[in-house]
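Open question from group meeting: does this chain pack into something compact, or does most of it stay loose? Before anyone orders reagents, we agreed to write out a predicted structure and look at it together. Recording both the input and the output here so the notebook holds the full record.
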Amino acid sequence: MTTLTVNGRRQTLEVAPETPVLWALRDTLGLTGTKFGCGAAQCGACTVHIDGQAMRSCVTPVAAVEGRAVTTIETVTGGSDPVGNAVRDAWVRHDVAQCGYCQSGQIMSATAFLRSRPKGSQPSAAEIDAAMAGNLCRCGTYDRIRAAVADAARALA
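Structure tokens returned:
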């Protein structure tokens, strides 16, 4: 058994220690906002926050995060998170999503990036690109993603 705090709630999971966090979230806890993309930590669709850091859940075993805080898209854009709300609202304003498959991972990376910055600081386009580089978008909405992250940063200033 493995114990994690998922979205603020302590969870005891009966899964093998090598089970990827992605599958524990989706199959055991029913949190399907985190997506499977490649299974090799190359696309970013499975991004979650582990103790506030963006991490790829498809290759992270539950044993590696025992006792740590796991945050998923369901909580980040679900209402009371000001950074998540700013990113979600900017995503809508900039019409970022097309097919939408990568969006939960994109938003999780964007929120972790904005939280890592000093309050009120405005990231450059190069800083945004570097922060978002591990997230692939099959539809190619990178310009809108960059604009939405910058817009969210301005909204949080």
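Observations to bring back to the group:
The longest strand covers residues 2-6.
Residues 94 and 148 are 6 Å apart (CA to CA).
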